[in-house]
Amino acid sequence: MKILITGGAGYIGSVLTPVLLHAGHEVTVLDNFMFRQTSLAECCRYESFDVLRGDCRDERLMKNLVAKHDIFIPLAALVGAPLCERDALGAVSTNRDAIRMLCKLAARDQRILMPITNSGYGIGQPGIPCTEDSPLRPISLYGISKVEAEQAVLERENSISFRLATVFGMSPRMRLDLLVNDFVYRAVMDRAAVIFEGHFKRNYIHIRDVASVFVHGLDNFESMNGRAYNVGLEEANLTKLELCAVIQKQLPKFVFMEAAIGEDPDKRDYIVSNQRIHSTGWKAEWNLERGIRELVKGYRILRNSLYANV
Question: Residue 309's pLDDT band (boundaries 50, 70, 90)?
């Protein structure tokens, strides 16, 4: 397959791109390299790899690239509530409008595999897992823009949407601001963390399993076509405090406490069912404990906060 990945030098793309190349696909990455990352340097050895510096909102550039590819994986986005609030115009134009433009440019027989966030569920009902049929009630600009992008993708033919849980794990373009990555970093470096609103629940997924689900979607596209899929660890619908307890089991010197005052600006609170993606034959390989061990090793290398979106 000839695959175009926008934002392919980001946190997920830096893991997914070499996986696709190793599987024998031809991959072109379009990225603006806003974080000055060099995470795709090792991919340059592949004759089947090409990389362009540019903006996915550039219609003339995208029209030319779309004509040359079979499959599109639009990873380019301003990710996370804080970054989107800081640059609202950039968030809407990149996260939503660029996707609408891609849908307009792509021919009916060309395929789109779209990642969004399961933060679109907003605040769920206690004890009731959100399924792909649950109402979407995003509470941040980030969530709203991604939900609207998903709507545009699923309204066309030949598209799949993956509603990703909070991603964790090591990447060549690392992010320390993601919840598991952040908490493990604090456990390793500070041995302590103060938790705001520790009862909020989230679902989690390792970055290698995110790459795996895209490969699964490519291999099973015809049977999965036209639907959204939650992608997370079924056993990891955890509160922040429960997550800290899992980390503490591997790092016993880690101390955490919940703040009596203060708020988390990210108000998401829900649990998620991942049964639809499991019914297609896909299973996650990385649990939280394995991912935490990986992060502990990684943080012996990383010693600063350059590797975050905020």
Answer: low
